[in-house]
């Protein structure tokens, strides 16, 4: 086929489509046209998964210039001069400078929180045009912002214990704000292999719809994050939400009235979400509830009616969520239709938790967040100081092997304290902090050995005290001759008692 044949063929195909379209518009009744349009639109959605927002220059009845349009124009002005290929030049207000902006139908690529966006300046020309040397006043300008449908929904952070600026409605038990935590797995300081393992686990979970259905399990996963304060438990939750594009429900158990309220809260959570209970060991006396039986409670109350009333008053304010209520919550018994949910508990004291609460199947993966390793430090150094290597790194590595420091403390030291603060100063600050931590640990160890030694002494002390007391008793029983009058009366009484006892009991061997 020659080039000419090909163009002729294409031309006749286009002409055919145009003809069919004209016939469709003219003869097909409107309801059917709408029906077809609806499905064409859906079909388009599959091929064109982008969202477009238009911002028109002139708005309202009086066609005033829109403030949003002016703000976008100003915002894009600097980007245009860097990135746009076709620019429009205007004289600035001072009549001396030149202001450059993007020309009509020009496109600029931009980024917002890691999301790729496209800005386009469009013009719409009225259909009835009269010939004129001057630009028509009817030409309308508008910007279009285009982004992928995936980013249509901004992530939200929900809470059942809101403070002032949280948004909520009477219908919902949760209030929310836009979730804007910047943490990612790249910026999280931890052992790279462990990090990869968690990422793989999350990916497997998020793609596991069929698998969970096949094995007959609710599509949910529980993570227990434990470790000392400042090791990145909350940061990891934010990184997980950003990675999976899930909402977060921060559940404050202490303000949940009872199991029924807990159930309602769970039902109101959406799919693709992470439900978090921070510091679970402090949230409820879950272990206590298990250990104390009802009978024991009742016995205590009967003995002390005041404490009973106090207890009742206190417990009317306190949460009545029980361990079994919480277990049902985790097992998802109340959410038969529940889909794609992650439940996370955090704690500083894993040993305090009831084993039932954290057994596999409930908290499927136990993740220990620990003190900062040199690998972790390298992530933070890259993140905070943009450093891959430095002559102080070996010294830091050695100190980190010798002492414990949390990632939170490392991060704090790596933050420049002045605008001009350089990387070397920050690293030196960290070295100082590490040396201090090492010295503190040494002193603590010394103190602990001293305490151990002294805790061994009290027994000896006790023995000597006993000996002294015995001697005192004897003194009282056999008063010294120079004792004062009152004392000698007491001593007489004691002597009487002793004699009395000796008559009743056999005399001890001395
Ligand atoms: N592993 C980490 N990687 C990166 N930054 C971290 C890490 N751990 C802590 N940080 C930094 O320290 C701050 C405190 O960390 P985070 O709140 O995550 O600690 P936590 O383990 O939840 O502490 P707590 O037990 O007190 O709640 C964070 O804002 C973050 O800047
Ligand atoms: Mg935390």
Automatic annotation (TrEMBL):
Keyword Magnesium: yes
Gene Ontology MF annotations: ATP binding; ATP hydrolysis activity
SMART domains with a match to the protein in the record: AAA
DNA repair among keywords: no
Region: Disordered, residue numbers: 289-317, 446-510
Matches recorded under PANTHER family: BCS1 AAA-TYPE ATPASE (PTHR23070)
GO biological process: response to stress
Transmembrane segments: 6-24
Domain AAA+ ATPase: 219-373
Cofactor(s) the protein needs: Mg(2+)
One matching Pfam family: AAA_assoc
Origin: domain of life: Eukaryota
Coiled-coil segments on the chain, per record: none
Gene3D superfamilies named in the record: 6.10.280.40, P-loop containing nucleotide triphosphate hydrolases
Keywords on record: ATP-binding, Magnesium, Membrane, Nucleotide-binding, Transmembrane, Transmembrane helix
Protein name, per record: AAA+ ATPase domain-containing protein
Compositional bias segments (type: Basic and acidic residues): 305-317, 446-504
Catalytic reactions on record: ATP + H2O = ADP + phosphate + H(+)
Family statement drawn from the similarity comment of this UniProt entry: Belongs to the AAA ATPase family. BCS1 subfamily.
């Amino acid at each position: 086929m020659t080039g000419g044949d090909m163009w002729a063929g294409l031309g006749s195909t286009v002409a055919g489509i145009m003809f069919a379209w004209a016939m469709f518009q003219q003869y097909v009744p409107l309801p059917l046209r709408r029906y077809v349009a609806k499905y064409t639109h859906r079909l388009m959605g599959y091929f064109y998964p982008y969202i477009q927002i238009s911002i028109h220059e002139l708005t309202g009845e009086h066609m005033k210039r829109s403030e949003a349009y002016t703000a976008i124009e100003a915002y894009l002005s600097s980007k245009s001069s860097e990135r746009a290929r076709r620019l429009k030049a205007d004289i600035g207000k001072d009549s001396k400078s030149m202001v450059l902006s993007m020309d009509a139908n020009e496109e600029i690529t931009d980024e917002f929180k890691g999301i790729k966006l496209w800005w386009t300046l469009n013009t719409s020309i009225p259909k009835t045009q009269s010939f004129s040397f001057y630009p028509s006043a009817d030409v309308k300008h508008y910007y279009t912002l285009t982004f992928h449908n995936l980013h249509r929904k901004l992530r939200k952070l929900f809470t059942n214990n809101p403070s002032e600026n949280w948004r909520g409605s009477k219908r919902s038990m949760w209030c929310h704000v836009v979730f804007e935590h910047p943490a990612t797995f790249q910026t999280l300081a931890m052992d790279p292999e462990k990090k990869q393992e968690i990422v793989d686990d999350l990916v497997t979970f998020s793609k596991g719809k069929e698998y969970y259905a096949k094995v007959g399990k609710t599509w949910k996963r529980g993570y227990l994050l434990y470790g000392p304060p400042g090791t990145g438990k909350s940061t990891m939750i934010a990184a997980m939400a950003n990675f999976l594009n899930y909402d977060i429900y921060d559940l404050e158990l202490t303000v949940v009235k009872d199991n029924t309220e807990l159930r309602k809260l769970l039902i109101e959570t959406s799919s693709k979400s992470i439900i978090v209970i921070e510091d679970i060991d402090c949230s409820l006396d879950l272990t206590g509830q298990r250990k104390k039986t009802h009978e024991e409670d009742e016995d205590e109350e009967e003995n002390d009616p005041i404490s009973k009333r106090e207890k009742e008053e206190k417990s009317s304010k306190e949460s009545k969520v029980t361990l079994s209520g919480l277990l049902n919550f985790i097992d998802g018994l109340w959410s038969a239709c529940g889909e794609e949910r992650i439940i996370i508990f955090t704690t500083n004291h894993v040993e305090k938790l009831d084993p039932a609460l954290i057994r596999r199947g409930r908290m499927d993966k136990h993740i220990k967040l620990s003190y900062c390793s040199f690998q972790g430090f390298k992530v933070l150094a890259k993140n905070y100081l943009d450093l891959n290597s430095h002559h102080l790194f070996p010294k830091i590595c050695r100190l980190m092997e010798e002492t414990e420091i949390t990632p939170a403390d490392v991060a704090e030291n790596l933050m420049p304290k002045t605008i001009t603060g350089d990387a070397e100063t920050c690293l030196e600050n960290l070295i100082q902090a590490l040396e201090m931590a090492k010295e503190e640990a040494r002193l603590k160890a010394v103190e602990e050995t001293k305490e151990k030694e002294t805790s061994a002494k009290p027994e000896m002390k006790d023995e000597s005290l006993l000996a002294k007391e015995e001697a005192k008793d004897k003194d009282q029983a056999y008063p010294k001759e120079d004792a004062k009058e009152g004392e000698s009366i007491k001593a007489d009484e004691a002597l009487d008692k002793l004699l009395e006892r000796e008559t009743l009991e056999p005399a001890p061997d001395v």
